[in-house]
Write a structure and sequence with these properties.
The protein is 43% helix and 18% strand. By secondary structure, the protein is an alpha/beta fold. The protein has one domain: 3-Layer(aba) Sandwich (Rossmann fold). The strands form 4 sheets. Strands 2-1-3-4-5-10 form a 6-stranded parallel sheet, with helices on both faces. Strands 6-9 form a two-stranded parallel ribbon. Helix 2 packs parallel to helix 4 and helix 4 runs parallel beside helix 5. It starts with a strand and ends with a helix. Bound molecules: NADP nicotinamide-adenine-dinucleotide phosphate (NAP). NADP nicotinamide-adenine-dinucleotide phosphate (NAP) is lined by residues 7-13, 30-31, 35-37, 57-61, 76, 80, 98, 100, 128, 147-150, 155.
Length: 279
Amino acid sequence: MKILVTGKTGQLGYDLYELLKDKEDVVAAGREEFDVTDIDSTHKFIKEYLPDIIIHCAAYTKVDDCEKNIDLAYNVNALGAGNIASICSDINAKMVYISTDYVFDGSKNIPYTEFDTPNPLNTYGRSKLAGENIVKEILDKHYIVRTSWLYGINGNNFVKTMLRLSKERNMLKVVNDQHGTPTFTRDLAEGLYFLIKTDAYGTYHMTNSGETTWFEFAKKIFEIANININVEPITTEEYNAPALRPKYSVLSNYVLKLRFNYELRNWKEGLKSYLKFSV
Ligand SMILES: NC(=O)c1ccc[n+]([C@@H]2O[C@H](COP(=O)([O-])OP(=O)(O)OC[C@H]3O[C@@H](n4cnc5c(N)ncnc54)[C@H](OP(=O)(O)O)[C@@H]3O)[C@@H](O)[C@H]2O)c1
């Protein structure tokens, strides 16, 4: 299988490439190879490599900045994904579009399945949902894979931020009224590798299992890393971030379970192995 991974300098793109490089014919591309908003250079690169599948991990992921840079968010997350999908259609390749739990509004208090209706609260979520819809319109052979709260070996994430702040401060305040599932990008990469070997196209939720809040997640990071620090719970309103976020965005990996009885391990297990790599 010839695989092209976009977003190679990001968390998921990096871990996917690391997983696949010894198993398949894989090339990873970053912005230096092509900017997804530039259809000509994107076309040129992809048509030279002629992949069987593109796993599209590149995205504008700065949730708060998306509120200021709305055009950029739609250009990268929606139209950029559309560019990739149309090239896939030309060369008869499959595509994986990575999407997000932030397509949901958080008004439920049980896990969202693939059969629930999205209703994003912020620009990032709206632009990612637009990307899902464009990919679906252009290309039949697509997998839309929604995931959540990623942390990986490469790039910045909540775990690295907590570890850094613990060296700079005696006390941390962390939001305790947003519920979700932290997901280790290596575990997600394994799940994606499993999925692309099936021809079962469609929409999937793929996260580590279980659920938590950012506050409980922070406490677990410090417990596993043996760091003694005072962590205080605060509300979303107290934290006052520019972008609205769903209070509850746990994803039930329902279709994966129904179709393949496939499940990713619990988020606490994922976190333990991540901290072994990175601390
Ligand atoms: N992070 C999360 O918690 C989370 C949660 C749910 C879903 N997701 C989704 O999961 C996927 C992977 O996320 P991630 O955390 O690995 O992302 P990330 O670490 O922020 O990496 C994003 C990647 O996209 C590249 N990129 C951005 N704009 C580009 C453009 N115009 N052209 C080409 N490349 C561009 C970046 O390149 P540069 O390094 O050059 O900027 C980087 O390689 C994304 O689709 C994201 O929406 C993420």
